[in-house]
Amino acid sequence: MMNESREMTGQSQQTSSALTDRFDRAFLYASLVHGGQTRRGTSAPYIAHLIAVAATVLEYGGDEDVAIAALLHDAAEDQGGVARLNDIRNRFGGRVAGIVEACSDSLVNTGDGRAKLDWQERKDAYVSHLRSADEDVFRVALADKVHNARSVLRDLRTPEIGTAIWDRFSVPKERTLWYYRSVIEAFRVARRRLPDQGLVRVDQLIDELAHIVGKLDEG
Questions:
Q1: For the residues 197-204, what does the mean pLDDT come to?
Q2: 36-40, 112-116, 148-152, 161-165 — which is least confidently predicted?
Q3: What span, in angstroms and rounded, lies between the C-alpha atoms of 111 and 88?
Q4: What digits encode the pLDDT tens for the residues 53-112?
């Protein structure tokens, strides 16, 4: 999963954060791929999450390829597996497809005969791979987890939902919080491997994620 996501070098290929019609096409593609899909336990369209992750990536220094990968980071895992990943590669290039693949903790609808691992095995494997994530994958995965945690905390504090939020998950609250804590530590390990240039503000996101998870543990 954590294959190299850059096609030419180990460094980021783009220095400009300007968006082109490629981003527009990626947004339309994401809207079609996730059409009708909603956030778990809500009526909110799933595309809202993807927009939020892409926006966070851009705000914290990601370029257009990384923002496109943010829009599509769940497309292969949720909507088509390897076939979807290959389509993304054909449409948006190897760098985008590599990030999407690396951000998927499982590609479950591949049609290649592989059995889906259970929750614990998938999460253990994802956390392990995340520790060696490159800069592109790091940005998208972190933005994804921060938005997910923000959403959970918001709903936990909503009187109409409250602690019933934990019923949306496939595992008990304790295991969900274990996963978040494991991911935070993996982000810290990965961050120590990455260059300081361009990533200083990203450290704030790790701290925010840790703060949110602390609040979730209190709830």
A1: 83
A2: 112-116
A3: 17
A4: 999 999 999 999 999 999 999 999 878 789 999 999 999 999 999 999 999 876 533 344
Q: Where are the domains of the chain?
A: 21-102, 119-218
For residues 57 and 63, give the distance between their C-alpha atoms in angstroms, rounded to a whole number: 8
d(CA 218, CA 56): 26
Burial (CB < 10 A; 0-12, 13-18, 19+), residue 131, is middle
Quick check: 14 and 136 in contact, CB under 8 A?
A: no
- The pTM for the full model equals 0.86
CA distances in angstroms from 88 to 7, 104, 165, listed in the order given: 15, 14, 33
Protein fold of 21-102: Hypothetical protein af1432 (1.10.3210)
Q: Are 62 and 203 a contacting pair, CB within 8 Å?
A: no
Share of the chain above pLDDT 90, in %: 69
CB atoms within 10 A of CB 56: 22
pLDDT at 150 over 60: yes
